[in-house]
Amino acid sequence: MEILANHHQALLLKRTISVKTLQDSDVRPLSVLEDTLNYLCNLLDSTEHPFEVVHDFIFDRMRSIRQDLSMQNISCSRVVSMYERMVKFHIISQHKLRRCSGSNISSLSYLNMEQLTKALATLFNLYEANRTTASIFKNEAEFFSFYVLLHLDSKTQGTGETLSLWFRRVPSHIMKSTEMNFARKILRYFKLGFYKKFIHTTESEASYLQYCIIEPSINEVRALAISCVNYGGYKPQPFPLATLSKLLMMKEWDVASFCNDSGLQTSVDEEGNSCLPTKQTTLIHPKGGLHKYYPLESERFERFSVEL
């Protein structure tokens, strides 16, 4: 891969030794691991190669960084910062991989999510190892909120522990944080089917990284909303797509496409406005699944940028 620009970078990134034959002299010191991580993070926005190629390159080398840190049993605040950056990488990668196509994307997404949950669990242990009285790291509450939001997806690899049991071990000052209050609220809206509150609270309150985790569930909530509008509407009064567009926070023509793929027909009224006739009996799960549709229409998220 040509993104290895020079010999110095190659030395930083080289990691081909088997674990079984690993010697103490082969393990990279913390300063080298930090330099390697800095270099890898700078590659995330590279456009020289398709993202799945860039992701695969960074993924393997970050995993080896965690291996070296684990072998040396380092748990200082510098390592906490490194793990936070690696968790961010996996969250953003999951977000970007959903926009990629190819036969191996599903596998890459699964492995990426697997490493995300493992890195997050290690990060929580590091927080605890460095905790003094009621102090917390600057971003700790947000990273705890990620774990809660990952439970929106039933396919996320769990730890075998229920969320209610996990909550009992979370420090009270984190449970009371704005970030955790948001995550618990979103989880409640999702489970109770409060689609309007789910969508609009996400748009107005989520951080970019929280949004990246929530995004796969948004179309699931949109599908629920369309079902409720269809079955709960008054048949002589078709539901305006303009109103549905605002409710679902997506472009009007995308709403029409979403409805059509859900087996529902749209129409145009006498004034030329697109509508969804209700009480249709042809509603189905959207053809092609829920992954092909669009993010929230939000100027706030468009302005977000995250540095690793």
From TrEMBL:
<dbReference type="InterPro" id="IPR005062">
    <property type="entry name" value="SAC3/GANP/THP3_conserved"/>
</dbReference>
<dbReference type="Pfam" id="PF03399">
    <property type="entry name" value="SAC3_GANP"/>
</dbReference>
<dbReference type="InterPro" id="IPR045107">
    <property type="entry name" value="SAC3/GANP/THP3"/>
</dbReference>
<feature type="domain" description="SAC3/GANP/THP3 conserved">
    <location>
        <begin position="20"/>
        <end position="266"/>
    </location>
</feature>
<protein>
    <recommendedName>
        <fullName>SAC3/GANP/THP3 conserved domain-containing protein</fullName>
    </recommendedName>
</protein>
